[in-house]
Amino acid sequence: MSDARPGHPALQVRALNKSFGTFKVLTDIDLSVDQSEMVFVLGPSGSGKSTMLRCCNRLEEPDSGEILVGGAPLTGSGVNLNAMRQRIGMVFQSFNLYPHLTALGNVTLALRRVQKLPRETAEAAAREALDRVGLADRAGHHPAQLSGGQQQRVAIARALALRPEVMLFDEPTSALDPELVGDVLAVMRDVKAQGMTMLVVSHEMKFARDAADRVIFMDGGRIVEQGTPEQVFGAPREARTRAFLGRLHG
Amino acid sequence: MDVFLDTFLNPAVLAKYAPAILEGAVVTVILSVLIVLSGIALGTALACLRAYRVRPVSALIVVYADILRALPPLVLILLFFFGLPNVGVTLSASLVLYVVLTLVLAAFAEEIVWAGITATPKGQWEAARSTGLGFTQALGHVVLPQAVRMVIPPLTNRAIAITKMTALGMVIGVPDILGQATTAQSFSANASPLTLAAAAYLVLFLPFVIASRWLEARFSGPGG
Amino acid sequence: MDAILAQFFNLEIMAKALPLVLKGLGVTLLICAVVIPLGLAGGLLAALGSVSRNRALRWASIGFVDFFRALPPLVLLIFIYAGLPFAGLRLSPFAAVTIAFFLNNSAYFAEILRAGLLSVPRGQGEAARSTGMSATQTLAWVTLPQAVRNVLPDLLSNAVEIVKLTSLASVVSLGEMLHAAGLVRSITYNASPLMLAAGLYLVLLWPLIRVIGRFERRIAS
Q1: What CATH number is given to the structural domain containing B14?
Q2: Domains (ranges, CATH) in chain C?
Q3: Model's pTM, two decimal places?
Q4: What CATH number corresponds to the domain at position A191?
């Protein structure tokens, strides 16, 4: 079921370290995500998974280490960060839609201000993106007029419209009512089917089992274990992974 | 009762000085509009500048805002009007009033807009930056529009309070409503011009006071 | 540069002005001591009226508040001080200032206290009444303390505005701080006495402004 292309890394993380004050959040993280691969990151809260994800577009500044997107460095001096961030889409737990703009305005803002597209071109691209998440008919709505699930789909469209090489999902369904989760997961599945490279932090175990190419388990700021969903869920090698999965299944 | 009417609502006096007070009203309105526009623009610009968090710049802005908020505007008006000519800067009374009240409104507006900027959720910055918007773009297109919306009620209240202070211009001879009225009152030896002035201020400001009440109710309502 | 120093920071003139300006500061503080409690009391009455269930009382209170929020305090002061004598009512500058500022401040305090009263959940009053407390007791011991706490920064800001407002008393020749400084300025033709007064206002109000800022941040977080 995997469309991933081994040997063609879209995102590489090398020897990543990060501390908040004296607290070490990430220790020597090495990770490579192949093109069109969907990698799921699991772990207890405080394991550093969200921080790792946020380092991947430098919303958190790594203390040391190297991050490459499509072979181009994201870290280091002289990097055009705003240009690089165009290549990395980000979807947040709390959606973070701009409340003063319509769905269409949310999607077009970066297209017009960063990519400098003319209004018509930007709006056409935005409508296409909204159509992909099934919300073409909601283009003129403000975030407050949309359900949580719809808001998150607009946020996905906002990231998709920039045609990123990699998309990062930071607990995209945690803030949603259970009945709204399905729509968002369906959109993510569709985005993957179209060949997007995805790094996902989430607690949706069933979705991870069905859709992920690879699962990573993090604890205490380190990658403890990784493998196919069958390996990690079915036969975890590490005691900490077993304990974590055991707690989830109650 | 007759004495009262004769003193405060004397038809002859009212008729005679109404044109002067109307002229004063024009001065008050022009000054008020200019003060509100430039004061809020300057204050917003300072709040944006402070958002870059360049330490010495922020410190200067904070000191400016604190001093201008702590000093009575009348003290500043007298300082500018009587102090500056002796160092070679002579400004007309109206210009002094405009400059001082603009600076004062800017100080309050800076604090109010800054509060709005800091109250905008961090996720809004992050979402904007994650799509490649630069700091200035994120501030201008995403954060500032939300911040300003959030602080419209306090900003309105403050703007009303400070435009009302145009009446202080009377002390240095600005021919605004109160200035015209006190002149008329001393010529006519009758209080009716003052009544007319009070009425003129009510006509000008009451709609804004009522509007601000409505704004506050609307903004604090459910779903704000 | 020397001209600026001589015109605004002339220490000799400041020293001469100091006793008179300090006496003026005393009057400034006296006005505040009278006007702030009066304004709070008037404001509380108007605030209670504006949240009352009696429609006439509610509209009368809101009308009072909006009227005096729309009228510049200096207009009110001059009307009372220079207008009323034509009708045979001659007030001392202090009385005129007290009445004018009482009316003005009551309106502003009323608006703040009203917001405070509305911020207290209805259940608080109901709980108090259910234990047998009277309406007045409920207000004094349950509703008002919470209301005041919720709008404390605004109440303090308004107190700062009142201290600044007292400078208007100089227009009716009440010898508060600005009047004293202005007097010495008009004799010496030098702005240093005004700078001295400005400095004293800063000493008086800057700490308050800082404290209010801290309160506001604490409530926001």
Answers
A1: 1.10.3720.10
A2: 2-220 (1.10.3720.10)
A3: 0.88
A4: 3.40.50.300
Domains of chain B: total: 1
Find the residue in B nearest to C205 (Cα): B70
Structural domain harbouring A80? 11-249
- The interface pTM score, or ipTM, of the predicted complex is 0.91
**Cα distance from B122 to chain A (closest Cα, Å)?**
9
Note whether residue A6 is domain-resident. no
Chain A residue numbers with beta carbons less than 8 Å from the beta carbon of B142 are 98, 109
Contacting residues for B171 by C-beta, under 8 A, at least 6 apart: B74, B77, B78, C171
Interface test with A, best of B120, B131, B148 (most A CBs within 10 A): B131
DSSP symbols for C121-147: -HHHHHHHHHTT--HHHHIIIIIHHHH
Domain extent, residue B118, equals: 2-220
Which residue type sits at A222?
R
Q: What is the pLDDT along chain A (250 residues), one digit of tens a residue?
A: 456 777 789 999 999 999 999 999 999 999 999 999 999 999 998 899 999 999 999 999 999 999 999 999 999 888 999 999 999 999 999 999 999 999 999 999 999 989 999 999 999 999 999 999 999 999 999 999 999 999 999 999 999 999 999 999 999 999 999 999 999 999 999 999 999 999 999 999 999 999 999 999 999 999 999 999 999 999 999 999 999 998 876 5
State how many domains chain A has: 1
Distance CA A159, CA A55 (A): 17
Report d(CA C30, CA C94) in Å as an integer: 10
B198/C79 touch (CB, cutoff 8 Å), yes or no = yes
**C89 near C82, Cβ under 8 Å?**
no
CA nearest to B142 within chain A: A98
* CA–CA separation, A88 and C9 (whole Å): 59
Any domain includes A1: no
